[in-house]
Amino acid sequence: MATRAKANLPVNYAEQLAKEAAEISKRIATPSGDRIRFNSNRSLITPDGNEGEELEVVVVDFVSSNLFYDGPFDRDNPQPPGCFAIGAEPSLLVPSPNSPNKQAETCSACPNNQFGSAGKGKACKNTRLLAVMPVAMDGDEPPIWIMSVPPTSMKAFDAYVQTLASKHKTVPIGVVTRITLDQGVQFAAPRFSVVRPLKAEEFETYMSRREEANTRLTAEPDVSQYAPPKGATAGRGQPVRRGVR
């Protein structure tokens, strides 16, 4: 059984350690092996190596993310985004000041975030990032996994959240959610449905991890290896449409 470490420390040391814990994420790399992956429209692959057609989890928290890649896609040598934004409300997203090639002052005004900037779609990849935890078994404390909802499935996720609020009077962390894949399309299209409300004794397991989940969701991508694409015009507000993914 996994339990949290508890130490009987003097108050002043406990406060110091708590303060350092809040800042420790700046000194370590963002976890990269905690992502749920899709095997096309056939199955979901969890970070622990399990693969199946559906997954039951608790969505602890979620944010919106915009990613603009200003270079050509290379599967064998993926590059960091030139511009990115992370936040709670999609309509209020603004590019991070740490974006190496910031495209606009706001995402809503960015030419790369408009339909038609890449064929019928957008040059900027819009997604919802979910922090989920598998349903706890035998008192164990489950891990936090990150799942990126593809742009084509954002409406399905948003509709699910709205249904929880209007019909069930709750939010995603209040229920067990079943994630499946739409078999009627060729690409990965996750769908969401309610399994059951959380039991009273289950809430502590998930609510106590909410801050950790949010920290993971809002961690910015590592752009230290960013290099402007050859021949591309870098600069604010310049639509470079080759980076569609």
Between the first and last Cα atoms, what is the distance in angstroms?
A: 41 Å
What structural class do you assign from the helix and strand content?
Answer: alpha+beta
Give the overall pLDDT as a whole number: 86
**Poorly predicted tracts of residues:** 234-245
Largest sheet: 6 strands, antiparallel
Query: Total number of β-strand segments?
Result: 9
**What number of structural domains do the residues give?**
1
* Number of continuous helical runs: 4
- Element order, helices and strands? HEEEEEEEHEEHH
Supply Rg: 20 Å
Fold and architecture overview:
Strands 4, 5, 6, 7, 8 and 9 form a 6-stranded antiparallel beta sheet that branches. Strands 1-2-3 form a 3-stranded antiparallel beta sheet, with no helix packed on it. With 245 residues, it is an alpha+beta fold. The radius of gyration is 20 Å and the shape is globular. The protein is built from 4 helices and 9 strands. It starts with 10 loop residues before the first helix and ends in a 28-residue tail after the last helix. It has one domain.
